[in-house]
Amino acid sequence: MASRLRPRLLLALSLLLAACAPAPGASESSATASPSSPSATPEAATSYPLTLTDDAGREVTIAADPERIASLAPSNTEIACALGSCDQLVGVTDYDDYPPEVADVEKVVVFAQVDVEKVVAAEPDLVLAAGNELTPTAVIDQLSDLGMTVVVLYPESLDEVYANVELLGVALDEQAAATELVDGMRARVQAAEEAVAGAERPRTFYEVSIFEGTIYTAGEGSFIASLIETAGGEPITGGALSTSIALEDLVAADPELILLGDAAYDPTVTAESVAARPGWGEMTAVRDGRIQPMLEDPLITRPGPRIVDGLEALARAIQPDRFD
Amino acid sequence: MRAAAAPSVTTRPLIGGPTLTRAALVLGGGTLLLGVVVVVAVAMGSVGVGLGDTAAILGRRLLGLPLTESWAPSAETIIFELRLPRVLTAMLVGGGLALAGTVFQALLRNPLADPYVIGTAAGASLGAVLGIVAPLLLPGLAIGAASAWLGLGIVQLLAFVGGLGTVLLVYAVARGTGGTPVVTLLLVGYAISSILAAGIALLMFASGRALGAIFGWLMGSLTGASWVDLAFAAPLLALSFIFLLARWRRLNVLLLGDAQASHLGVEVEREKLGLTMLATLATSAAVAISGTIGFVGLVVPHLLRLVIGPDHRLLLPASLLFGAALLVVADLGARLAGGIPVGIITALIGAPFFIWLLRRSRAIRPVPSP
Q1: Is residue B155 part of a domain?
Q2: Average of pLDDT values for B193-199?
Q3: Is A115 on the interface with B (CB under 8 A)?
C-alpha cells in the first residue's frame, strides 16, 4: 500500500506544483522587494527591516538578516542553498533530496503535511512557504498568526523563478550570489532557445500522470506548457484548472511527440505500454515511435535553480537534431 | 411510565432511570477520564515538551502563577497556542457531535441517524468547499471581508451558515400540512443532500490544486485549531449543550412516538423543531471548526446506550463527556501518526471496539426502545 501511495503522492505534488493554471494575483506580478532604506541599490547590502511583497501578494517585513530558515518546499530549499544559505536551514520537507547536505536537516513537512509544532520548535526567523495550496493557505495563516515571518514563493514561469531568486537574494542579504545565479540561468536558457530557434515545432504532449483513464497533463498557461514552448515544442494542454485532457481531445490534437513525465516514478509507464493503450495507436507520435520517458520530471516540475537542467532535458527531447 | 405517576418511587424516577450511584459512577468516571485525556493530549505531540514545563507553562498562562521561564519560547507557543486550543476544540467538537447524535437518534427513532443525517454535512461541506475554492476562482471576493470582520476564516463561516441553512431548508420542504413525519424529514434530507453533494463534486472536479485542502476538510481535521475559531464556536456549543441537556425528559417522551407524546401533553411539532435546531446548531458550530468528522456522532450514543441504557437524563451528559474524551484521544493519535485526518482514527479505533461491544452485550439495543 505504502509503495503504491508514495509515487501517487509524488505525482499529486508535481501535478500541483507545475501543471496548473496561474494563481490569481500572483501571475501578473512577480514578487518585488523594496528595501526600507530608499538609498539601497540592487547590488548593495540589504538593510533591515526589509519589507517585501511575496508571490501570494502578502506584505512581509523581515526584521533582521535571517539566521534560521525553514523551507516548506524543495524548490525553496534549492534556491536558499544555491545562494549559500544551506547551513542556515533548520527545517525542510521529507521530499528534499537536493543538495545532499539537507538530508540531515529536521523534516518539518512529512507526507506533504506541515507539522506546525515542528516548525515552531525549529524557531525559524524566516519560513519559506509554497503557493497554490502546496503549503495550505490555512497553515500559512496559522504560522503568520503565531508571529512568524512567512514568505510565499510560487513561480509560474522562468522569469518568476529569476524574480524569486533575486527576492531571496535580497531577503537573505546574498544579492551578489543571486545576481550571479540568475545570470548563469539566463545564459543557459538563452543558449537552449538559440539551439532550438527556427526548428519545426512538434506538437508535444507531456503526460504528468494517468489515473483510471483520466489523463493529466500540462494545464493551459501552466509552467510546464511554457517550458515546452521555450524548449522548441508546441504544447498540447489540458484544462487550466483540472489539468486533465479527454482522450478524444488528445487524439484530435494528434501529438507528434509524447513525453512521459510519470515514467520517472512508475516503471510500468514505457513507450511500449503507451503504444499499446487502446485508442492511442493512431496518434502520429505513436506511429512514428516518438514516445520518450522523461526521467528528469523532478527537475522539470521543481521550480528551483535546477529548472534549467529540466529545460535543457526537454529541449534535447523535443529537438534532438539540434543537440548532436 | 406509570412509575412517574407514583412519587413514592424516588430512586427510579422514569423508565428504569439511573440510580444516584450509577449516575455518579458514569458521570464522575466520564469527567475523570476526560480530565486525564486532556492533560495527556496537551503533554504529548510531535515535539517533546517536558511534563514539568508543560505544567509550568499552563500554570503561568492560565492561572497567572509567577513562574520564571525555564523553557524555550517555542515550547510556550506549542503548548499554549497550538496544543491547548486544539485539545479544547477536539473536546467541544467530540462532545457536540455525540450529543447531537444522541438527540437525532431519539428524535428520528432511527439507529443510523447521526448529526449529519438531515443535511448538515452536505450543507456545511458545500459551504466549506466554496470557501476553499472561491478565492482561487474569483480573487478579491467581498465575502473575505465579511468573514474577516468576524475574525473567522471564510471556510468556517460558510460551513456554519451552510449547515444551519440546509437543515432549515430541509425542514421547510418536509413540513406538510399536518406536521413533519420523521420519514419525510429523512427522505427530504437525503434528497437535498444529494443535490448539494453534486455541487460539492463539481467544485472538487474544478478545484485543481485546492483538492488536497478540500479532501482534508471532508475527512475532518483539527489541524488549524486556534483560539479565534474556538471563541466563535465555544459559546454556540455551550448554549446548545445547556438547552439540550435540559430537555432530557421531553426526549424520553418523544421516544414513545409522536401520538403517545402528544397524549402526554408534549407539543410534538414545536419540540421536534426546537430539538432539531439545537442539535443542528451544535453540529454546525462543530463542523465549522473541524470539518466533517465521522463516526463519533453515530457510534458514541449507541455505545453508551448499550452500557447505561436509553434514559436521556444520563445518556445526554454521558454522551457529551465520552464523545469529548473519544475525540481528544483520536486527535492525539492523528497528531502522533503524522497529521492524518482524525476521521480515519475515530473509525479505525472506534469501529472494532463497537463491534466487540455489540457481540458482547446480550441484548442488542441499537434502536432506542420505547
Answers
A1: yes
A2: 94
A3: yes
Residues in chain B with CB shorter than 8 Å from the CB of A241 are 206-208
Crossing angle for the helix pair B211-219 and B120-137, to the nearest 10 degrees: 160
Lowest mean pLDDT among A4-18, A181-195, A198-212, A218-232: A4-18
Contact A163, A31 (CB under 8 A): yes
Which of B46, B153, B224 faces A117 most closely, judged by CB atoms? B46
Are B224 and A134 within 8 A, CB to CB?
A: no
Locate A39 and state its grid cell: 538609498
C-alpha cell at B198: 453534486
3-state secondary structure chain B: CHHHHCCCCCCCCCCCCCCHHHHHHHHHHHHHHHHHHHHHHHHCCCCCCCHHHHHHHHHHHHHCCCCCCCCCHHHHHHHHHHHHHHHHHHHHHHHHHHHHHHHHHHHHCCCCCCCCCCCHHHHHHHHHHHHHHHHHHCCCCCHHHHHHHCCCCHHHHHHHHHHHHHHHHHHHHHCECCECCHHHHHHHHHHHHHHHHHHHHHHHHHHHHHHHHHHHHHHCCCCCCCHHHHHHHHHHHHHHHHHHHCCHHHHHHHCCCHHHHHHCCCCHHHHHHHHHHHHHHHHHHHHHHHCCCCCHHHHHHHHHHHHHCCCHHHHHHHHHHHHHHHHHHHHHHHHHCCCCCHHHHHHHHHHHHHHHHHHHCCCCCCCCCC
Q: Which residue of B has its CA nearest to A121?
A: B74
**Which residue(s) pair with A205 in the sheet?**
A258
| Chain Cα centroid distance, residue A94 | 16
Gap from A115 CA to chain B (nearest CA, Å):
7
pLDDT by residue (tens digit) across B95-150?
999 999 999 999 888 888 889 888 999 999 999 999 888 776 665 555 455 555 55
Reading the block at residue B269, the C-alpha cell is: 411539532
Q: Which of A34, A94, A92 is nearest to A59 (CA)?
A: A34
B338 with A145: Cβ contact below 8 A: no
For A268, the grid coordinates are 510500468
> For residue B70, how far is the Cα from the chain centroid?
38
- Residues B308-339 pLDDT 10s: 888 999 999 999 999 999 999 999 999 988 87
Cα separation, B103 vs B97, whole angstroms: 10
Here the CATH number for the domain that contains residue B143 is 1.10.3470.10
Evaluate whether the domain defined by A198-323 bears CATH number 3.40.50.1980.
Answer: yes
Question: Domain range for residue B130?
Answer: 80-360
Cβ within 8 Å, pair A118-B47: yes
| pTM of the predicted protein model | 0.80
Continuous segment of H or E residues that includes residue A107: strand A107-110
Contacts of A132 in chain B (CB under 8 A): 209
Domain membership flag for residue B297: yes
With cell 458550530, the residue in question is: B285
Q: Would you list the domain boundaries of chain A?
A: 40-191, 198-323
Q: Is residue B238 part of a domain?
A: yes
Write down the CATH superfamily of domain A40-191: Nitrogenase molybdenum iron protein domain (3.40.50.1980)
CB contact at 8 A, A151 and A173: no
Q: What interface predicted TM-score (ipTM) does this complex get?
A: 0.76
Q: How far is A242 from chain B (nearest CA, A)?
A: 5
